[in-house]
Amino acid sequence: MSVEEATADLERDLEDFAWLRAVEEKTMIPKTVIASVLGLTSFVIMYVVAGPGLLCNLVGFVYPAYASFKAIETEQKDDDTQWLTYWVVYAVFNLVETFAGIILFWFPFYYSFKFGFLIWLFLPNVRGAQYLYSNFILPMFLQQEKRFGEAMERLASGNDFDELDAEDDDEDEDSYEGKKTR
């Protein structure tokens, strides 16, 4: 998608906002400029007030969720694949970040890099998520697919958890009996 096409799409989307059309007529400033200034101002306010973590989460969720809803409603399969790939990569990234977060948060400009990384993942003309998925996640998954499948089957069947549940029930009864006799 070219810049001109993206601008035309934005113009069409902004036509739905009557208040924005009124501001454009009074100020003679194009709707796209007004929306961009408002978006940038909101970005700076959220960054200062709520912090960069919230801003990164919003970038990682809001636009991709919106684009995913739009992709579901189209007949094309390519956009569905793009957004499913994004969500898989995003899930893996969040899993890694959960465990490495204690170290990562000490790096200067971590959230700036995370912000840029998330945008790189979902931009349609870059397809960063597709690159990471094809070159890193898929090969690793294919290598471990059998082990992963077995673990999921055990988890789904609940067999491994029956013994633990029985032990927990026995402990609960013992502690209840102990309280009753006191």
UniProtKB/TrEMBL annotation:
The keyword Transmembrane applies. Residues 160-175 have a biased composition (Acidic residues). One of its GO terms (cellular component) is membrane. InterPro entries: TB2_DP1_HVA22. It is a multi-pass membrane protein. Its main location: membrane. Residues 159-182 are annotated as: Disordered. Keywords: Membrane, Receptor, Transmembrane, Transmembrane helix. The chain crosses the membrane at residues 33-66, 87-111, 117-138. It holds the Pfam family TB2_DP1_HVA22. It is found in: Membrane. Belongs to the DP1 family. This is Receptor expression-enhancing protein 5. It comes from Hondaea fermentalgiana.
